[in-house]
Each structure stands twice: as structure tokens, then as C-alpha cells.
Amino acid sequence: MRLVAKLKSLQRDWVSWVPTLWLGVFFLIPFLVVLKISLSQATIAMPPYLPLFDWVESALEIRLDFGNYLFLIDDPLYGAAYLESVRIAFVSTVITLLIGYPMAYMIATAREPRRTLLLLLVILPFWTSFLLRVYAWIAILKTNGLLNGLLMSLGLISEPLVFLQTDLAVYIGIAYTYLPFMVLPLYASLSKLDRTLLEASEDLGATPWISFVTVTLPLTIPGVIAGSLLVFVPAIGEFVIPALLGGNDTLMIGKVLWNEFFANRDWPIASAVAIIMLFVIVGPLMWLNRINSKTEEATS
Amino acid sequence: MSSSPLLVKNWLDPEAKPFIEFRDVTKLFDGIPAVRDVNLSIYQNELFCLLGGSGSGKTTLLRMLAGFDSPTEGSVWIDGVDITQVPAYERPVNMMFQSYALFPHMTVFDNVAYGLKRDGLPKAQIAERVAELLELVRLSAYAKRKPDQLSGGQRQRVALARALAKRPKVLLLDEPLGALDKNLREDTQLELIKIQESLGMTFIVVTHDQEEAMTLATRIGVMDEGYLVQTDEPHTIYEYPNSTYVADFIGDINLFECVVTENDAGNLVLSAPQLETTIELDDPVVGAVNQTLWYAIRPEKMRLTRDPSTAVNALKGVVHEIAYLGDFSVYWIDLANGFRVRISRPNISRMDDFAEAWGEEVWITWDGSAGVVLSQ
Known about the structure:
The structure holds two protein chains of two kinds. Chain A is mainly α.
């Protein structure tokens, strides 16, 4: 009996070890490697940085070069790129939320089998290549593209508008690409919502709109936060969408990182950029997580 | 408490104006009827109970009054106004939900204040009214708690306070005591009656619990498969059910199938093969010769005896089983033809005469007026 219990507890430990091991191998170790590179000196060699640890005449020499970080602070380009990334990610997240919430609401209130069909339609774009879909947006947004053609044939505009290579195109691209990540958590929290609560508020004199504001919205805040994080966090580091849809002046940190890494071959600077980006993301993440656990506590 | 001296039995007065009316109401869900052709008048200050099994349509009827469902046919009236098309948020009724439906993200205070805020009352007035209601349901100390920090009974009282807050003309209660345990339920039943009487409000209660309906109601409406099968005072429902369904649903009853053998100017003679006897009825009952009727007697209206010489109706049988329930005992008696009769006896003495009468031959007796004749 005791042996069985021991085996069982071992099994339980094993189950909790798997994700820990996974995170250790695929997150913590690469993170430490990047951290190490960010603290070393660039050089023209293979790999293009000097080692952190060195044996010099039986003494261990550790050389930590904080110059990369100081350089990032010194050069206003990087600070501007971080701020711009956060701003673009924020605006895109708000747009995604404004489109995603009504969609999730509609799906959550639809009846089966319509509900499953609508959910499938949300996920469907994932089955085509991401790059292909972004290129498709170029065809839609370009000067003599589909959107301008439509607006002109409707007589709304007489001259084609410039969509491509603007921030607007980046917003559209991010909102379009990340919409499912917004819709799915919102759908989960909306479909969990007890409908009798809405009947109760209506019964007490709340119009459908007031019911939404006072009952539905506060009770689905966890979904709003989860969805927003799933859009906001990857959008900050987004590279492909601003590169393809944005203009030359669309300065996002993903693009800066790519330039440092591939064009300048300055791995230490690129690593420092990545490390700072991590902290830019972790900050709001922890803050939202705290709000989230608070509201979840209140609603469970 | 149908015996309350304060109660005016409006439903007996043909001149009285009904307060709530369902007129020819039918409700279909995807073509399947949930409520069929219901006509019902409820009067001011009534504590009306809709009683029925699950799927009988009682909750649908209540929801049509609240405005969550709209009738497929017919109309619903409150205080002389047709409210069939009025949205729920404009109706002068409030509902206490079976699940209580308390807003989990709001405190007890905010839950109770919710309806008052929608009316745009000034803050001070809301606070005053909420305090008054929390006092009524004895929860003043819990105003700042969230619903998940309350017990089931406390949540039930918050739900009641919230539903009462706007002083609705009618309060609807959907299985209000369903989730409470037995002792708490009995206390709460009496408390509900007290609140209803002191506020002079019309209550409509939906329940599947006949005991609850009997305790609470001024009148009971029994529903079955969407039909309102009988609407009467609890006493009438129990003593004079109008169908075998109602007779069987409310309390226990022995049903005997009979055939009319004689009809002498309304005085019928029934032949009841299951009773191996004929029954002569004192009360006039409508029935043609050869028509099948049911003769129904409540278990407590039959007696057990060893000497049937003075009885009007007497039958011999063998005691099959005895269930001692403390306050009374139930006896199952097998007649010679195999038909089983249920009899209940109050345990007036500590050791009843028949307490250990298993297998014994006994006589069942009953008075001429003990049974009712039912035609359906």
C-alpha cells in the first residue's frame, strides 16, 4: 500500500516536473544565453562577441560589459522605438478588442450548431500561411488595390487614399492577425456568464445596454484582460507586419532588433534590446495579472 | 395561511376586479407547447402558488408575467393594463430567482440597491431603503459582503430583499425555498407569509413541493402538461380534487375504478370491482349508467378495525406492510382480490392497537362522505 502511494506521489511529481523541465530547457536556458551575450563585447569573429569568462594565467576573468545597455539608453532611437512599439501595440489591442468583443458576444449567444460554425470561422484563417495573409492585405490596401477601388466605385472618394506604409495599415494588420487570440478568451468568459444574471438585471429595471455595462462587462473583465494580453504582448515585438505593411518611419522594436542582428551583426546590442523588451512586456503583464486575479476572486 | 383573518377572499366575489390576468395564454417553444390555453385571475394581496411537476409549464407561466418569455397566443394583464408587449425592465413586477441570480461582483448592499439605482433615486434615499430592507431580512451586518461569502439561507434573503426593493405590485418567486434544508425551509415559509401580509403585496410562488404550496398559498393553481387543471384554495384542492391527476398529485390517495349501475334521479349506485362492493353516494354526482368513474379516498379517511358491525362501508383485508413514521403510521392492506389499499393512522397512543398486525385479518371502514367521485 505504502509503495503504491509512493509511486503515485512520484507520478504526481513527475507530472509537475514536465512543464518545469520544459520551461527550463526552452525558456530559462535560452534567456540566460541571451543575457550572457547582451553583457559581452562585440567583435568581428565567429561568433561575433567575446567570451564572458576567460582563463588568464590560472585566474578566472569575468568581463561584464554594460556598454550595450548604456548605448541603448544614450541613443534616443531605441527609447523611441520602445515607446512607438508600445503605442502601436496598445492602439492595435484596443481596435482588436472593439472588434473582438461584439464578435465573441455574438458567438456566445448563438445557438448550436451556428455557434460551432462561427467559432470555426474565427479559427479558419489560421489554416493559411500567415505571410500569405499579410501579403493579401498589401493587395487590398495598396494605392490601386481593392479597398481604394471599392471606395472610388462607391463614389466616396475621388482620389485613391494612401493606406499602405502607414500606421493605420499596421493597426489593421495586427488587429486582423491577432483577432482570434482576442475572440477566444472573450468567448470563453462570455459563454460562462450566467444568463439569469441578465434576466435579474432586466427584471430590476435595467435596459439591455445598462445590463451590459453593469453586469456583462464587469463579469467578463478576466476575458478582456486575457485577450488583450494575448494581443498586446506579441504585438510589441511584431516584426513581419510593420515590415510589410508599415512605412519606413514605422519604428518598432522588432524591426530594430532584426536590423541589429542581421544587418549590423551586433549580437550583444540585439540581445540587450531583447532583454529590455522582455522587461517592457513583463511590467504591464504583472500589473494586469494582479487585476485579473482580483476580479476572478470576486466572481468565482 | 388561508385561515388568516386579514384575508379577503376576493376570488369568491364575482364583482371583484382581478389584479393579474392570463387570458387564453398559450406558449410554444419550437412548436412544442409549454403552456396551453391558460385562463387565470389572481387578486390583490393573494399569495398564489403555481404547483406542478417539472415540465408542467408553471415556470414558463411565471416568466411570461415577468416578461422573459412572451406568449405565443393570448395576453397578460396587470392592474387592468395589457402588459403582453411591455419589456421586462418596464414591468411593475420583480422576481426572486430559483438560483437567486445575485450579482457576484457586487456587495450585498449593491445587489439590493441595483433596482433603486436604475430608478435614479438620490443616493441618500437608496441607502435608507437598502438599510430598511436588510433589516427586514435580518442581514444588516452583512451589507459589505459579497454573495460568495454568504450561506445559502443568507443569499436567499438577499435575493428576497433585492426583489422587494422597488416595492413591486407583484412579487414572483421561482422555487424560493428549493435550495434550503428542511428546518430552514419551514422557518422561511412562515417568514415569507409574514412579510407578504405585512407588506400587503401580491405574491406568486412557483413550486413543485405540495407541502410548501399548502403552507403558503391562499389559492393553488395545479398545472399539468401546460394545462391549468385546477385552481382552488388548498383545502378544496385536497378535499375536492377535480381529477384523478390532482387527487394523486396532492397527497396520497386510494383510487378505485367504478362503473355506474343505477342512476335514480342523481343518486348513483356504483359498482366497484376493486372494492368488491357497491357504493351508494349521498352527494348528487353526474354520471350515466355504464359510465366509468373513479372513487377516491384519502388514506387518513379510512379506519382499521376488528369489529365492523357499526360501519357503513366495511371491507376485509390482510395487513401487508406497516410503516411507522412517528407521528402516524401507514398500513398497506391487501384485499381478497389482490387490490392494495393505503391507510394512515395517527399514533395517538404510544403503542397502537395495530402496530404489530402484520399478516392479520382486519376490516377497513369509512364513512359515506369520506370519498370523492371523479369523472376524469
